[in-house]
Write a structure and sequence with these properties.
With about 750 residues, the protein is mainly α. The chain contains 29 helices and 8 strands. The chain has helices spanning about 15-55, 85-95, 105-125, 135-140, 145-155, 160-180, 215, 225-230, 235-250, 260-270, 295-310, 315-340, 345, 350-370, 380-390, 395-415, 415-435, 440-465, 470-500, 505-510, 520-525, 530-545, 550-560, 590-610, 615-625, 630-640, 665-680, 690-705, 715-730; strands at about 70, 75-80, 100-105, 195-200, 205-210, 255, 275-280, 285. The chain has a 4-stranded mixed beta sheet. Strands 1-8 form a two-stranded antiparallel sheet. Strands 2-7 form a two-stranded antiparallel ribbon. Helix 22 (about 530-545) packs across helix 29 (about 715-730), helix 24 runs antiparallel to helix 25 and helix 27 packs parallel to helix 29 (about 715-730). It is elongated, with a radius of gyration of 52 Å. The protein starts with 16 loop residues before the first helix and ends in a 13-residue tail after the last helix.
Amino acid sequence: MTPGKRKPKPVRAQLRGAELIDLRKSRLTRQRQRLACLIPAVLAALISAAIVCGSGPAFPYRVGQRATRDLRVNVPEFQRLNLVQTNRLREQAARQISPIFSNDPAPILELQKLLEDLVETVANARRETIASLPPDVVESWGLDANIFEDLREASDTPLRRDDLRRSIAEAFAPIIRHGVLGRGLLPLDEESGTMIQVLQDDRRVSVSRDRVFPERLVRPDGLVAEDFIATFNSPELGKTLFGLVAERLAQTTTLHFEKEATAEARQRARNRVRDYYDTYTRGQLLVERGRIITEDQLELLRLDHQASLASMTSADRLKRVGAFVVLVASLYGLTGALLQRFDPRIARDPIRISALCFVAVLALGLSRLIAIHPWGAELIPIALAALMLAVAYTPMTALVFTFGTSLLISLALGTGLGYFIMLMGGTAAGILLLGEVRTRTKPIQVGAVAALGYAALSAAAGLWQEQPVELIAAESGIRAGWGLLTGFLLGGSLPYVERMFGIVTGISLLELGDVNHPLLQELVRRAPGTHNHSITVGTIAEAAAEKIGCDGLLVRVGAYFHDIGKMLKPNYFIENQTPGTVNRHANLAPAMSTLIIIGHVKDGVELGRQHNLPARIIDLIEQHHGTTLVEYFYHEANRRRDGNPDASIVLESAFRYPGPKPQTKEAAILMMADASESASRALSDPTPARLEGLVEDLIDKRLRDGQFDQCELTIREIAAIRDSITKSLIGIYHGRVKYPQQRTA
């Protein structure tokens, strides 16, 4: 090599401009698809992290649980309202409020006036003997000569008479002010205590009960008697006068109990008493290790937990949120990787990813919301969502979903490993049993199996954690009940699940396959040959589908409807033409005949949509011919062109079905079964060898034509389908024994 010169680089293969543009468009489309799948996943991860994180660590204790360690106060201090002590102090304050009475002194004022009149009558007597008084006065007051002499002496002069009148007024003043309580007027619940309150000029005055109770008031040595007598200059005169009025006072009532005023005063006294709190400090023992948590202890633990949450700083909360975001994002990433590995149809479909993320967020949110109540029903949203996904997608997808949501809800509720195992195991048992839903009782059976799983795993986890037998039995029974309820909810929600996810269950397929379906009845009436062909194709296709593990029921029901478009022009199809009639295509150009033949696919799709057939059935109607060539009329058009040199070129694309090609294995199986059954009718001698060659030729032709390029069928599966179709056709056209003619009598 000459020094100073570079070695020439090898020439690379150059892409043409159009190819480069196509590659860029394809790359851009894939990037947009990934982004469309990533955005809902990221949003769901953030929302899930918020749900799991909540406002702080979950409260993990419940009544009846056995403490696995000493539970102590974790905060500097917290207080708990002591309702017992608070109520005791408030009732004590209420009891200190004496009953309240209103006072009507009119009867005592009248008695005072009667006594003054008596004094005046005695003072004005003409003679100094009691006989000078009216007999009714003597009798009503119970006077005798001594009393008369005492009163006469105390009022013999105007001055002494005025002094006596003033003394009487002073003696009655306390009685008028305090009042007299009649016998039996005090409520039984107010008999305790020594004081009452009497309303006087919008204020309450406390009065001893000895001054108002009749039995105590009339006692000569009582407080009232002492005060009464003390107002007179002569104690003897005071005793005499008190003796005159005592009996009358005992029969007088001036005080009336004010129930509402008393209740209001006592309530105000209660309200003035502040709540009494017990204080708990750090390290104080709340529950001893091995002890069963009671309701009172649970309240203390909850208060300690709330105080701990309140003491969290912003930095602590930020660290917690960040940790949960990373944890949840990792779990979502792991779920996405598993789906990409085992179910790429979901992982690459933005709509399915969005639906899966929505269900996950909804299930977590509902579980966290239900967990506020101590019913243990938070497992229902998780289990129901997992079973719905098993129906809508695949058991693998449902198991991945169950693992992720069970782990997240266990973290959110702080329930630990035992709860995760219970929820994951019981739900997985239901998912694995679910399979194809062909009966109304299948969801209930699945719920029963899940219930048994919940009960068994709850009991195992409780025994492992050394929980009380009563708590284990209660939790196992409750969770079993929720599991059974989930089965009923699944059965009731199946129609909505089918509509939401665009699926069709075995129950719906069996209902569609009923011979009384309006479309099938119309097909029998208008095109009986096509109906017979469809039934036969359904039987052949179902056997082939089950041979390779596909949905045989879907293929069979789809076969019933795949040719419903032919009922609009039934006489243009060979199976509906009776022998001896003129073929409708004889006078038509091959291109026109092709349009009629191809048109039955479009007509069938429109009929299916008008009668609300499921999308998967309509897909089978639309794809069961793919983009195959209508060979008979294509060759007929070429034959006619060969005889006419001026005729236009026959385009093969004009004689092909519009497609699309089969997108699923079920559609491809239907295509093969339909073509094989139709072609077998044209064989004059359908021997096993000829049927086998016919099926092999038809399938190979469609394989070379690329009809199976978009349905993920393998060569091994195609071979199994070919063998199954061949056996079915041989069974249909099996040889029969010729019986000798019956002799006539």
